[in-house]
Write a structure and sequence with these properties.
The complex is a heterodimer. Chain A is an alpha+beta fold. Chain A has one domain: Cytochrome p450 (Orthogonal Bundle), CATH 1.10.630. In chain A, 49% of the residues lie in helices and 8% in strands. Chain A is built from 17 helices and 9 strands. Chain A is globular and about 60 Å long. The model of chain A has no long low-confidence stretch (mean pLDDT 91). Chain B has a single domain, classed as Alpha-Beta Plaits. In chain B, strand 2 and strand 3 form a beta hairpin. The longest helix of chain B is centred in the last third of the chain and has 13 residues. Chain B is globular, with a radius of gyration of 12 Å. The chains are: A alpha+beta, B alpha+beta. The interface between A and B is medium-sized, with 25 and 17 residues. The structure holds protoporphyrin IX containing FE (HEM) and iron/sulfur cluster (SF4). Protoporphyrin IX containing FE binds next to helix 13 and helix 17 of chain A.
Chain lengths: 406, 75
């Protein structure tokens, strides 16, 4: 066993501030790296090269379902997301055939017609958010970035997400690597599930032309989502749809403020928006790592022997910066068109909301650049901080001067 | 229920999620570019057809097309 360690302790404070040197160390020195995951102190492996992450996400020797396949150590440490709540049956943690069944029912509600209906409200929400940003005493891009997925999700699900801030806080508590106490995480998940329950009850009474009603009514032959499955689906949409998008928008705006040439290119070349969004998903992603995968048997992966039940983390943010895959990976280049990234996952669990994620990013990011061409950060960027959240790279705030220094 | 179905991927709609080749590797593979591709244009038997329909239902871009071939129609 190697005694050498990454330059910053994985999933520690310094790592969250800038994980990329640690990812580079992992890719070079220990591409399938064993370490102790800080929550629960459990034996975990992290996979960091593009090819390995890609392989892992499509490898039938691994499961996403902790109760069936995770090590006892993992379960004892109560590491399972949403353990003991409705959230423990979310789609991200199901294997086929359960996963197939739920995904088909959910996907049937995301019709192209429905996605097309979301364009106009997204534009309206973004314009209103820009107006508010301009008028704000302390304009902050993280607030802007957060309001957009919240209002868009609210609109789509058919519910004003008036408890949006509670919800974001619940998600933050749920995925914090330093939980306040043992119960805090479970309570946070229960809050998220309860939110879903209220929404379903409301839509059963008053069906409308929205995604929640479509999910309630979704049919596959005689099959449909039952109450618990609906709660889990709403919970996962809320969890997967808000923070990811917020962080993609916020960290991308920061990256563009730091690279004025790319800012100008995006501002003056609206035709580049599609490749730009893919590059943003690659470069900043929004998602840092995928959910745990578990080895279903003793096996070898990337030359490393993994015991049955081993929890393995796919580091998608690292895969997307792998120089073996991407030329000059640490350069943001919105004209880059190939090759494909794994910012929205790969394989069975690839992002169900990908069309919406792309839509929100393609509207919200160019719009802020066009509205405020001279925007500058209002604080030195090296003072900016990231939250200790392991699933998403979460900027705490980005104060700006919308019209620059002049 | 038809015993045969045509299987196709609309490669312009495909977003290269890799789901098809992961869920049903016997029926789909990915091109070098990561785009989904049926291994054969025709699937036969209830099990294969069901598997193809599962993929069509799970595909994030609606790019997988399964069309039953009615008996008597040319295959
Ligand atoms: C920028 C925004 C987003 C990013 C970067 C993102 C990224 C991802 C990634 C990487 C995965 C795979 C996780 C894994 O394999 O462990 C995933 C899955 C998922 N995402 Fe997204 N996502 C985003 C937005 C959304 C939105 C807006 C929704 C919902 C409307 C959503 C719903 C989901 C769901 C339900 C899954 C699980 C799919 C399954 O298990 O079959 N995501 N996402
Ligand atoms: S599942 Fe659909 S989107 Fe994904 S690779 Fe196959 S055809 Fe393309």
């Amino acid at each position: 066993m190697t005694t050498a360690a990454p330059p910053t302790a994985l999933f520690g404070y310094d790592f969250y501030q800038n994980p990329f040197p640690a990812y580079e160390w992992l890719r070079e020195n220990s591409p399938v790296h064993e370490f102790a995951f800080p929550v629960g102190n459990i034996r975990t492996w992290i996979v960091s090269r593009f090819d390995d992450v890609h392989q892992l996400l499509g490898d039938p020797r691994f499961s996403s379902n902790p109760p069936s396949w995770a090590s006892q150590e993992f379960m004892d440490a109560k590491m399972m997301v949403g353990s003991g709540t409705a959230v423990e049956r979310i789609i991200t943690m199901l294997d086929p055939p359960d996963h197939t069944r739920i995904r088909k029912l959910a996907m049937s509600a995301f019709t192209p017609r429905r996605v097309a209906q979301w364009h106009e409200p997204t534009h309206a929400i973004v314009e209103a958010a820009l107006d508010r940003l301009e008028r704000h005493e302390r304009p902050d891009v993280v607030d802007y970035a957060g309001v957009i997925p919240a209002e868009v999700m609210g609109k789509i699900l058919g519910f004003p997400l008036d408890r949006y801030n509670d919800m974001l806080h619940a998600i933050e508590r749920a995925f914090h690597t330093d939980p306040e106490d043992e119960d805090a995480t479970r309570k946070a998940f229960e809050e998220i599930a309860e939110y879903g329950r209220v929404l379903i009850a409301q839509k059963r009474q008053e069906p409308a032309d929205d995604l929640t009603t479509a999910l309630i009514q979704a049919r596959d032959g005689d099959d449909r989502l039952n109450e618990d499955e609906l709660v889990a689906m709403l919970a996962v949409l809320i969890m997967a749809g808000l923070d990811t998008t917020r962080n993609l928008i916020a960290t991308t705006v920061l990256s563009l403020l730091e690279r004025r040439d790319q800012w100008e290119l995006l501002r003056t070349r609206p035709d580049l928006v599609d490749s730009a969004v893919e590059e943003f998903l690659r470069f900043n992603g929004g998602v840092a790592v995928g959910f745990f995968r578990f080895a279903k048997e003793d096996l070898e992966f990337g030359g490393v022997a993994l015991p049955k039940g081993a929890p393995v983390i796919p580091a998608v943010a690292s895969a997307n910066r792998d120089p073996r895959r991407f030329a000059d990976p640490d350069r943001l280049d919105i004209t880059r068109t190939v090759p494909r990234h794994v910012g929205l996952g790969f394989g069975l669990h690839n992002c169900l909301g990908a069309a919406l994620a792309r839509l929100e990013a393609s509207v919200a990011i160019p719009a802020i650049v066009r509205r405020f061409p001279k925007m500058t950060p209002a604080v030195p960027v090296d003072e900016l901080r990231y939250d200790e959240m392991w699933l998403v790279r979460s900027l705490t705030s980005l104060p700006v001067r919308p019209h620059g220094d002049g | 229920m038809a015993e045969r179905a045509r299987l196709a991927v609309d490669q312009r709609a495909c977003v290269a999620s890799g789901l098809c080749a992961t869920l049903a590797p016997a029926l789909f593979r990915l091109t070098g570019d990561g785009v989904g591709e049926p291994r054969s244009a025709l699937v036969t038997g209830a099990a294969e057809i069901e598997s193809a329909e599962d993929v069509a239902g799970c595909c994030p871009s609606g790019a997988v097309l399964v069309t039953p071939v009615l008996d008597g129609a040319e295959g």
